[in-house]
Specification:
This protein has about 260 residues and is α/β, with parallel strands linked by helices. It is built from 10 helices and 9 strands. It has one domain: Rossmann fold, CATH 3.40.50. Strands 1, 2, 3, 4, 5, 6, 7, 8 and 9 form a 9-stranded mixed sheet that branches. Helix 6 packs antiparallel against helix 7. The protein is globular, with a radius of gyration of 17 Å. One of its GO terms (biological process) is methylation. One of its GO terms (molecular function) is methyltransferase activity. This is Class I SAM-dependent methyltransferase. It comes from Nonomuraea zeae.
Amino acid sequence: MATTRELLAYYEQDREHGRLRAGRGRLEFWRTQDVLRRVLPPAPARVLDVGGGTGVHAEWLAADGHDVELLDPVPLHVRRARELAGVTARQGDARRLPVPDESVDVVLLLGPLYHLTERADRVKALAEARRAVRPGGLVVAATISRYSAVHDGVYQGFYADADFRAAASDAAAGGVMRSPRSGFTAYFHDPAHIPPEFADAGFPEVRHFGLQGAFWLYGDVDDWLDDPARRALMMDALRSMESVPSLLGVSGHILTVARRDR
């Protein structure tokens, strides 16, 4: 992650800790968990969770029996993650992983690509992940969809603000989102641009999983998530269309999975 002053100031407010633990953020959490449990090797696997925040995914991965190390550039996140059972945590940068070659089974990049606005830095982070993972191992990266700011802005009502609307329009046009709300700059991917970045990092083949589909934009999504039976139906529906190319860009987030072939 590119650790600008603005980025650190935002995350040091401790906003990330609860983002996926409440409200409609739970849909992103549960779908990420669902996909990872299907694609990861059986436990115990050595998992490097790069940009793992306060450990929202590291916690359940460790509980599942995996050997989890978390890296994050934000000191507050590292301190919180160190409190989790079965998780080791230290500061680190996705572009310079402090681990030996071919030393882990899985590298997760569930946040860093959001904050690397330069394509060369994103490819470097993916190449570093490839270096760290063993042949046959997996690299899983999350990206934010190109039009998510427009969708989310309309959903939450702040698309009417001229400054936000201009930033969201810029993101839709070129990918770079200079948020007037968070105060830092992020990168939003067109789904078609993801495979070439992986290819340049040494991954010729990838699989895509749209996490939230259009459901994150439904007004009653919290009601569905609160009801276990309805939540199960929603999850089944999302699995049925998670890799349909024409629907990927509607999702707020996309998971891309690649395997190191040699």
